[in-house]
Write a structure and sequence with these properties.
With about 210 residues, the protein is of the alpha/beta class. It has six helices and 13 strands.
């Protein structure tokens, strides 16, 4: 098995593995697929936010006053890569309701094959926030690397990437270009085919989330 850096977190959990298997099934309906993407997004967010800083505050339980942990209020933002990344946003927000949402749209220039930004809308204070970039698939890594680069141009210093499935090729590219960015994924699949699809994968995540195929 390929060894990755400690910044690559493959979330090994029975519920997540079970839900991923249903996602892979070509007969899973659009409705079920969309709901499962959101549910897996929640499970992955649980791991991706494990290092959020805590402070304490006093609360009064039905029995007595006590001092208990609470989030330290560090600012957090989720940034989906359009359009498929939108499918993960709801799951993240269910776990971190106070998060702000930025959006980044990318397409590939057919001549240069380089990702081109066509839409970008961020919270005004995005540079001060912990940023979680989300996209269902990390295939070649080109879009994810471009998104990370754009967020760094905004001045962001604490960036993570969260995906459902990753290909070894995508992980290796990000480890070369942005080794400091942690990657959280549900599974690492075998390889990319000649069309750049993850194998065995789950097909085109955007089409399956939005029912466009």
């Amino acid at each position: 098995m390929t060894m990755y850096s400690e910044n690559v977190h493959i979330v090994n959990h029975p519920l997540l593995a079970h839900k991923l298997t249903i996602l892979r099934d070509k007969n899973t309906s659009t409705k079920d697929f969309r709901e499962l993407v959101s549910e897996i997004g929640m499970l992955l967010t649980y791991e991706a936010t494990r290092d959020l800083p805590l402070t304490e505050r006093e609360v009064e339980t039905p029995l007595c006053k006590t001092v208990a942990p609470t989030l330290a209020g560090k600012k957090f933002a989720v940034v989906p890569i359009l359009r498929a990344g939108l499918g993960l946003v709801d799951g993240v927000l269910r776990m971190v309701p106070s998060a702000r949402v930025g959006h980044i749209g990318l397409y590939r220039n057919e001549e240069t094959l380089e990702p081109v930004k066509y839409f970008c809308k961020m919270p005004k204070d995005i540079a001060e926030r912990d940023v979680l970039i989300v996209d269902p698939m990390l295939a070649t890594g080109g879009s994810a690397a471009a998104a990370i680069g754009f967020m760094k141009e905004y001045g962001c210093t604490n960036i993570k990437l969260m995906v459902l499935l990753a290909a070894p090729e995508g992980i290796e590219l990000l480890q070369r270009e942005y080794p400091e960015v942690p990657i959280y994924c549900g599974a690492v699949d075998d390889h990319l085919n000649e069309r750049g699809y993850i194998v065995p994968g789950l097909g085109d995540a955007g089409d399956r989330i939005f029912g466009t195929k």
